Amino acid sequence: MQIVYNWHITERCNYSCEFCFAKWDKATEICGDYEKLEKILANLSQKEAISEFIGEDIASVRVNFAGGEPLILGKKFVEIVKRAKELGFETSLITNGFLLEYNLEIFKYLDIAGISIDSLDENICKSIGRCSRESYLSEQKLTGLVKEIRWNYPKIKLKFNIVVSEYNYNTNIVEQLQAFEPDRLKILRQLPFKDKKGITDEQFERFLSINEKFLKFENKVIENKSDIIQSYLMIDPQGRFFQNGNEYDYIYSEPIHKVGIKYALSQIPFSKEKFMSRYNQGGASNG
Ligand code: SF4
Asked: What architecture is domain 2-285?
């Protein structure tokens, strides 16, 4: 099987979403420290350690870079992904898409490009905070980006992530995004975190029923609260594994570059069953 690490490389972002869960400590990010980054990549490449932890043979390892918004790091981020590729990792990116047009070089080093889009409606994007100085990722801009990926990088898999929140649960965004024929479309329920409550079961059901017709496509993955909690291998900008603990904060390991991957893994709660079910079903483009 393939192991996927979700590395939130920075908390910095050009958007300011109301329900953002990327809250750590900007001052202690290690994204500028190549020695620590190199040590973490070396640890993540240790297939035996993770194989022992999961109890399965590991065929390949993918690092899914997320944030914050990784592309805000510019050239520095491109170098990190390039290095991961050189070390033999599969690589993927989750971006809000806004800065992609200025960082097209990143596609040379990616296997999967994931764009998180909760709405293509300007008013909804602005209500959520998914905008940068009054500007947002419009349908027109997205069309241009998708064309760029499909035309110049045909081997890259395209993925969309939608977070269902109180702002978009009444919309048909799935239908709009399926028109781009993505390889994977993931729907995630907004989780309660800190002072944000998340959405109700009824609101999530409402979203699924509005979009029902377009959820029949095989490319989709739907993740409700319990599917998400403690089912990802997530790393924070300080190089620590972290997991959702209660609704108010995260549970952390010590930094991977200090204690090694084996010990760090032993310090976080993790549901092997949920993890296996996601990656066995979703294949290479899930995560
Ligand atoms: S785009 Fe993502 S990281 Fe940025 S503010 Fe929104 S939820 Fe947070």
From this structure: Alpha-Beta Barrel (3.20)
